[in-house]
């Protein structure tokens, strides 16, 4: 979808969302955007990047934003969105229709302090970076709940939720890191050349916000990994205790089986077979052997 033109302090803004082949052709024919650029900026596998074409004086920005697969389960990945300055016109590409990107664009458009297209781009990036924070807080809340539940009673659903958290943190922390690296590089690119004080302040604001978000996800990743490690250790210990109990129980049951099996043989004149209370004697022998075995296991610290 190619939305109607808007204006940012005299600069045209063309907003695109999930464009199809016909709309790609329109961008090529009507606005003169190269086909390779369109393919690049709408590729869902692209990572954060900034490209300046000195021949065309074009500037291309690619950044990563959070994309919800299942908000209730906190399952997130990241998807790229692009901004292209081409022949004095700003084009934005939100091929995955990311809600956070749409919110960031219109928040920057409605901001009365945004008086240039450069400020619009930086304000958009600031809001996109800021959109990671509510997800981090939701992860913290979910992590605290899972930590409590796993310490009380282990459920498969809780383990699946913990796995989802680890996957989400992997995607988001990687995206935050790459975004921050690009934000640190932007002031040194053509986009930052000749920046006035207002633009420098915007650069610093976006970088500081990116660093804060990065620290939040680093902490969450470390805590969730420790919870997972602790749970695995507890699960292994519980399994060892269970196996030890079953082993001792099987050894205990093996003793009377051996004794009774011996006296159950169809052979004449077995030892003690002629005694009146032979069955009680064999029972006593079984009990004595069981007690002796348990004492030996205790002495050898196997119990």
TrEMBL record:
Membrane-spanning segments: 245-265, 277-297
Natural source organism: Weissella cibaria
Keywords annotated in UniProt: Membrane, Transmembrane, Transmembrane helix
Localization terms from the record: Membrane
Gene3D superfamilies for the chain: CorA soluble domain-like, Magnesium transport protein CorA, transmembrane region
Lineage of the organism: Bacteria, Bacillati, Bacillota, Bacilli, Lactobacillales
Gene Ontology MF terms: metal ion transmembrane transporter activity
Domain of life: Bacteria
Membrane topology of this protein: Multi-pass membrane protein
GO cellular component: membrane
CDD domains (UniProt xref): EcCorA_ZntB-like_u2 (cd12827)
Protein name in UniProt: Magnesium and cobalt transport protein CorA
Alphabetical list of Pfam families matching this protein: CorA (PF01544)
Family statement drawn from the similarity comment of this UniProt entry: Belongs to the CorA metal ion transporter (MIT) (TC 1.A.35) family.
């Amino acid at each position: 979808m190619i939305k109607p033109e808007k204006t940012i302090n005299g600069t045209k803004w063309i907003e695109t969302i999930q464009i199809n082949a016909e709309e790609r052709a329109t961008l090529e024919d009507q606005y003169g955007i190269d086909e390779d650029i369109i393919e690049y900026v709408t590729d869902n596998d692209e990572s954060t990047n900034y490209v300046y074409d000195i021949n065309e004086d074009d500037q291309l920005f690619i950044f990563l934003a959070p994309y919800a697969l299942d908000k209730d389960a906190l399952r997130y990945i990241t998807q790229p969105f692009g901004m292209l300055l081409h022949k004095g016109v700003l084009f934005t590409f939100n091929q995955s229709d990311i809600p956070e990107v749409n919110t960031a664009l219109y928040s920057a458009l409605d901001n009365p302090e945004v008086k240039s297209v450069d400020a619009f781009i930086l304000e958009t990036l600031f809001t996109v970076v800021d959109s990671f924070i509510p997800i981090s807080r939701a992860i913290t809340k979910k992590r605290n709940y899972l930590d409590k539940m796993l310490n009380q009673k282990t459920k498969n659903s809780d383990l699946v939720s913990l796995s989802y958290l680890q996957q989400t943190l992997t995607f988001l922390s990687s995206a935050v890191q790459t975004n921050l690296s690009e934000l640190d590089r932007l002031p040194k690119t053509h986009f930052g050349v000749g920046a006035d004080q207002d633009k420098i302040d915007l650069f610093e604001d976006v970088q500081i916000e990116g660093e804060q978000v990065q620290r939040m996800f680093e902490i969450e990743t470390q805590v969730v990994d420790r919870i997972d490690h602790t749970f695995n250790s507890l699960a292994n210990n519980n399994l060892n205790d269970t196996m030890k109990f079953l082993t001792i129980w099987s050894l205990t049951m093996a003793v009377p089986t051996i004794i009774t099996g011996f006296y159950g043989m169809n052979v004449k004149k077995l030892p003690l077979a002629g005694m009146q209370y032979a069955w009680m004697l064999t029972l006593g022998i079984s009990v004595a052997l069981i007690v002796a075995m348990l004492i030996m296991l205790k002495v050898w610290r196997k119990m």
